[in-house]
Amino acid sequence: MSTLEKLPEQLDTLRLWDGTPIPPGLRRRVLRVYAHHTFLTEQIAAIEAERRAQLQTSSEASIDRIRQLMMLKGIGINGSWLLVMEFFGWRAFKNRREVGGLAG
């Protein structure tokens, strides 16, 4: 359970330092930010679920590379996915400087 789940209901009980309720404009802004946060959280969860499903079922070479990188300590699904799909998935590096230039 997230600590933000009850935020919309809690906004009605919040008060400013002098005891007055929070202004309506601030309440609307907080609700917009909360809706955006909720939307992004759902999208991230959907992407991570899709990646986990691909890791379990796919036999592509790039997915095998992701599995291999995930065996290393400190590299999880997101890090290995980024490295394989963005660095080595479709690029052909000629030297280490090209890799370093892309990595920053």
Q: What do these coordinates show?
A:
The protein is an all-alpha fold. It is built from five helices and no strands. The protein has two domains: 57 residues, no CATH class; 46 residues, Helicase, Ruva Protein, domain 3, CATH 1.10.8. Helix 3 crosses helix 4. The radius of gyration is 22 Å and the shape is elongated.
Please summarize the sheet with the most strands.
none
**How many distinct domains?**
2
**Helix residue percentage:** 55-70%
Judged by helices, strands and strand pairing, the structural class is mainly alpha
Spell out the helices and strands N to C. HHHHH
**C-alpha Rg, in Å?**
22 Å
- Count of helical stretches: 5
User: How far apart lie the N and C ends?
Assistant: 37 Å
Oligomer: single chain
The fraction of residues assigned to DSSP E strands is under 5%
Total count of strands? 0
Quote the average pLDDT: 89
Net shape: elongated
Poorly predicted ranges: none
Short description:
With 104 residues, the chain is mainly α.
